[in-house]
Write a structure and sequence with these properties.
By secondary structure, the protein is α/β, with parallel strands linked by helices. Helices cover 43% and strands 15% of the residues. Helix 5 packs across helix 6 and helix 8 packs across helix 12. The two termini are 31 Å apart.
């Protein structure tokens, strides 16, 4: 059963947050180090003070509640789970259903800029024929969606829940799917497992790795360079994946108890993975960042969100050797994405029908460059249709 939902955070929760922020103990850093060893302490102190004194959650709560929100159960028996989602229908009756899937450390909040561009494209230089009815769920364990209580909630299982939401709960027989980060992995699994349901994929990150075997074509020079860069990144920049993929509960205690710790852990990722050129304000306002941080804080969902990394390590890594996602796939290649595979690498795992070299933007495409992403998404789905 689907029920309307509105955000209403108790005053006591916000008061407790301000008290904790006032008691933050931010450690000193080495002189001249800046962000080299993690989040810059001086930047963090400034952000925490803004969070404590200037940031107005109630304004953001009112803004977010303008988007139609719902809760619904998907799955049956022990596989059932409750999902929170935005369902913003276009005024154009012929609009196409679109599933928008976020990742970590983002949330459905990152889609609030792009949703109007997709539901009413004529207001942003597009055509009414390119409109979508948008469904943007909070992933299980994120925000107001229920956290899984048993093992096995990996991206492939989540894909099944998302397809259930679209077809069984909302009644969309077929739909498009778009995602980055975890969203790209989950959207890819939906397309692989339910090829008749997904009319087309639009990705801004390659969600599934190709399976290489004796019958695979030799690696190109571009692919070899990409794999070398991926190995370097894993050894130098991906420590967060190691801890979140092995000991999420231990880390989660600290992040769930300290807003300063939560901010330090997430903000570093926003700076490192965006096209901000070292200055977060080039890609995100402090209001953007703090709204997302507060979302994780008020829902107490940081631990369950990072647990997805553990489940990913235990679950399916990709389709069996010799298979790939045959759904028509459009790929938006943003220049500051964490890893940028060449087209031939992506084509090993996907039926790529459109490849767009984006002029700017990073990992958080819907937040950083909503107009560019919306335009490419509309054009891609128009071509696929």
């Amino acid at each position: 059963m689907m029920e309307p939902f509105r955000i209403a955070v108790p005053d006591a929760v916000l008061k407790d947050l301000r008290v904790r922020l006032a008691r933050s103990r931010v450690p000193d850093g080495l002189e001249g180090v800046g962000w080299e060893q993690g989040t810059d302490p001086s930047y963090l102190r400034e952000l925490l003070e803004i969070w404590r004194t200037d940031f107005d959650w109630r304004t953001q709560e009112t803004r977010l509640n303008k988007f139609p929100q719902f809760k619904a159960g998907v799955g049956e028996g022990q596989d059932a789970i409750g999902l929170h989602f935005l369902h913003v229908q276009s005024p154009h009756k012929a609009a196409r259903p679109l599933l928008l899937l976020h990742g970590w450390p983002g949330s459905v909040i990152e889609f609030t800029k792009i949703i109007p561009m997709l539901t009413r494209p004529e207001d942003y230089g597009g055509r009414p024929e390119s409109a979508f009815h948008v469904v943007a769920p909070s992933l299980p364990g994120y925000g107001y969606s229920e956290a899984p209580r048993t093992r096995g909630a990996d991206p492939r299982r989540i894909a099944g829940w998302m397809d259930n939401l679209m077809r069984e709960v909302l009644g969309y027989e077929s739909y498009f799917a778009q995602g980055g980060d975890w969203g790209s992995v989950i959207a890819s699994w939906i397309a692989y497992d339910q090829p008749r349901a997904v009319r087309g994929l639009h990705l801004n990150m390659a969600g599934l790795r190709p399976t290489l075997g004796a019958q695979s074509p030799p690696l190109s020079e571009a692919e070899k360079a990409f794999l070398a860069e991926a190995r370097r990144k894993r050894s130098e920049d991906f420590a967060y994946q190691a801890i979140q993929g092995t000991r999420p509960q231990t880390l989660g205690v600290a992040l769930n108890d300290s807003p300063a710790g939560l901010a330090a852990w997430l903000v570093e990722k926003f700076r490192a993975w965006s096209d901000c050129r070292g200055n977060l304000e080039n890609s995100f306002s402090s209001e953007d960042l703090l709204t997302n941080l507060t979302w994780y804080w008020i829902t107490g969902s940081i631990t369950s969100s990072i647990r997805l990394y553990y489940e990913f390590r235990q679950g399916d890594a990709g389709p069996p050797e010799g298979t790939r996602v045959e759904t028509p796939t459009a790929f938006a290649d943003f220049p500051k994405e964490i890893l940028r595979p060449p087209r031939e690498w992506v084509e090993r795992a996907y039926n790529v029908v459109r490849w767009s070299e984006m002029p700017r933007g990073g990992h958080f495409a819907a937040w950083e460059q909503p107009r560019l992403l919306a335009e490419d998404l509309r054009a891609a789905c128009d071509e696929i249709d």
